C-alpha cells in the first residue's frame, strides 16, 4: 500500500471527508497509508490524545515545521509539548479566561452593531457563517497577539485573515509534499508579527506572548527563538 490515496484526497482538500467515508464503509479502524491508521472510536480518544498518553502527534504536524526548529504548532514529542504547554498554562486558567470575557463581549457587540446598521429598513436575511468564523479569529488575534484586524467593524476580512485562510490549503500541500515546507517561513507576516511583538515593552504585550517570550522552556532549558514561537 502506498501513500497515493492520502496524496490524492489531501490535494483535493477532501482528505477528512474521504477518511470519514472510509470509516462508514469499513468500520472504526481504517488503514490509510503504509504505516498509518485512522480511528474514529470515541472510546479511544483519551487513549490516543489524552494528557499523559505519551503518544506522538501524527506526522501531519510536521507540515508546520518550516525551519530546523519546532514551533508551537509542529511540536510532536510529548515531553517537549508539555514544556510549551507549561509556559502558557497561566494564560488559559479559568481566572484569566474569565478576565477576557469583556473582550469577547465587545467583539460580539461590534457584530450586532454592524448588522443593525447594515440591515436597518431592509427586508433581507444575512448569512452569519463567516461572521462566527471572523469573531473567533478576531478574539484569538486580540488575546494572543494584541492585534485588532478591524474585520468586525468593516465586514471585510483583513488581509491577515485571508492569509490564515489560504494557509489551510498550503498546509495540506506541505503535509503531502515535504520539500515545500522550506517555503512556509515565507508566509506573510508570521515572523514579522513575532519580532514586532518581541520589540514591545512587556506591559504592551498580551499575557500569552509575554510568557512565550519571557519564560524558559524547561524541556529544552532556554528561551524560545522567534521561529519557535
Automatic annotation (TrEMBL):
Transmembrane segments: none annotated. InterPro entries: Cyt_P450 (IPR001128), Cyt_P450_sf (IPR036396), Cytochrome_P450_monoxygenase (IPR050121). It holds the Pfam family p450. GO terms for molecular function: heme binding; iron ion binding; monooxygenase activity; oxidoreductase activity, acting on paired donors, with incorporation or reduction of molecular oxygen. Belongs to the cytochrome P450 family. This is Cytochrome P450. The lineage of its organism: Eukaryota, Fungi, Dikarya, Ascomycota, Pezizomycotina.
Amino acid at each position: 500500500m502506498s501513500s497515493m490515496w492520502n496524496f490524492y484526497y489531501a490535494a483535493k482538500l477532501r482528505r477528512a471527508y474521504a477518511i470519514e467515508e472510509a470509516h462508514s464503509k469499513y468500520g472504526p479502524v481504517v488503514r490509510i497509508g503504509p504505516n498509518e491508521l485512522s480511528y474514529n472510536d470515541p472510546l479511544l480518544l483519551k487513549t490516543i490524545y489524552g494528557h499523559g498518553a505519551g503518544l506522538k502527534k501524527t506526522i501531519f504536524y510536521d507540515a508546520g515545521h518550516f525551519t530546523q526548529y519546532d514551533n508551537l504548532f509542529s511540536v510532536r514529542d510529548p515531553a517537549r509539548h508539555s514544556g510549551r504547554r507549561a509556559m502558557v498554562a497561566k494564560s488559559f486558567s479559568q481566572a484569566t479566561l474569565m478576565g477576557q470575557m469583556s473582550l469577547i463581549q465587545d467583539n460580539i457587540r461590534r457584530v450586532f452593531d454592524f448588522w443593525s446598521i447594515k440591515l436597518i429598513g431592509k427586508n433581507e436575511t444575512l448569512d452569519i457563517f463567516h461572521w462566527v468564523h471572523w469573531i473567533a479569529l478576531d478574539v484569538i488575534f486580540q488575546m494572543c497577539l494584541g492585534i485588532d484586524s478591524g474585520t468586525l467593524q468593516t465586514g471585510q476580512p483583513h488581509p491577515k485573515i485571508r492569509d490564515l485562510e489560504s494557509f489551510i490549503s498550503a498546509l495540506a500541500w506541505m503535509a503531502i509534499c515535504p520539500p515545500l515546507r522550506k517555503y512556509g517561513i515565507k508566509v506573510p507576516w508570521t515572523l514579522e508579527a513575532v519580532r514586532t511583538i518581541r520589540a514591545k515593552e512587556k506591559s504592551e504585550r498580551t499575557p500569552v506572548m509575554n510568557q512565550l517570550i519571557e519564560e524558559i522552556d524547561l524541556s529544552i532549558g532556554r528561551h524560545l527563538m522567534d521561529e519557535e514561537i
